[in-house]
């Protein structure tokens, strides 16, 4: 992820030249047009557009921004599925239903507004997944399990998922896909004269476009949003 960010920023920075003073800007839209392929509307029904969203800062409103930007970048009206990774909790605090609820409500609103078809979770054990399922208006359609945490799916989780028609998937994403320090290092090395320590990543979305009939990935990539905290 860090390499992708650094390469994109370096290429973007070299193209805009030095005529733009980044120090005065609150928003930098860093896009390399040729690296992003919009989906042809005529092919949309043949493709599945899925995403996994990693919230770096604990702000549920980031979800709508991430989905809107992904739809705009890919040229689609909605995403077929979005899985949310558990947002970061404070040290010594356990992940709970109460903590997840505002994030899930944002996802539910996007389903109701037809911006997302199906929503899923990641790294929830049987107890928390059941609590979310019983509380939610829009039920989770999937739950990802980290291969590093278990070689075999927990039997209680498997039984519950089967009973409630929740698809169990596996992943090998690290607990923290992109930390603040790593992002700032990539920014510092890519753009000259930028005060990297002022920029804080908010969220990271990884998308993939899959050809349904063949099960192959047509394209994939990352979209990230950061804010500037200028003192």
TrEMBL record:
Domain NADP-dependent oxidoreductase: 31-169
InterPro entries on file: Gclm (IPR032963), NAD(P)_OxRdtase_dom_sf (IPR036812), NADP_OxRdtase_dom (IPR023210)
Single Gene Ontology MF annotation: glutamate-cysteine ligase catalytic subunit binding
Single biological process term from Gene Ontology: response to oxidative stress
Keywords, in A-Z order: Acetylation, Glutathione biosynthesis, Ligase
GO CC annotation, single: glutamate-cysteine ligase complex
Pathway(s): Sulfur metabolism; glutathione biosynthesis; glutathione from L-cysteine and L-glutamate: step 1/2
Similarity-based family: Belongs to the aldo/keto reductase family. Glutamate--cysteine ligase light chain subfamily.
Subunit record text: Heterodimer of a catalytic heavy chain and a regulatory light chain.
PANTHER family: GLUTAMATE CYSTEINE LIGASE REGULATORY SUBUNIT, GLUTAMATE--CYSTEINE LIGASE REGULATORY SUBUNIT
Protein name stated in the entry: Glutamate--cysteine ligase regulatory subunit
Organism: Leucopsar rothschildi
């Amino acid at each position: 992820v860090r390499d992708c960010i650094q390469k994109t920023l370096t290429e973007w920075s070299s193209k805009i030249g030095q005529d733009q003073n980044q120090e005065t800007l609150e928003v930098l839209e860093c896009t390399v047009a040729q690296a992003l392929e919009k989906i042809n509307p005529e092919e949309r029904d043949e493709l599945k557009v899925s995403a996994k969203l990693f919230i770096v800062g604990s702000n549920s409103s980031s979800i709508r921004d991430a989905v809107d930007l992904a739809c705009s970048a890919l040229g689609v009206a909605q995403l077929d599925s979005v899985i949310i990774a558990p947002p970061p909790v404070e040290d010594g605090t356990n992940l709970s239903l109460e903590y997840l609820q505002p994030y899930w409500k944002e996802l539910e609103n996007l389903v109701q507004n037809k911006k997302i078809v199906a929503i899923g979770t990641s790294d929830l054990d049987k107890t928390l997944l059941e609590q979310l399922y019983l509380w939610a208006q829009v039920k989770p359609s999937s739950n990802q399990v980290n291969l590093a945490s278990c070689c075999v799916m927990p039997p209680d989780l498997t039984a519950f998922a089967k009973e409630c028609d929740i698809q169990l998937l596996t992943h090998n994403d690290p607990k923290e896909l992109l930390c603040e320090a790593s992002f700032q290092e990539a920014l510092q090395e890519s753009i000259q004269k930028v005060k990297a320590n002022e920029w804080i990543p908010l969220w990271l979305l990884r998308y993939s476009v899959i050809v349904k009939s063949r099960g192959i990935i047509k394209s994939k990539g990352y979209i990230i949003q950061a804010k500037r905290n200028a003192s």
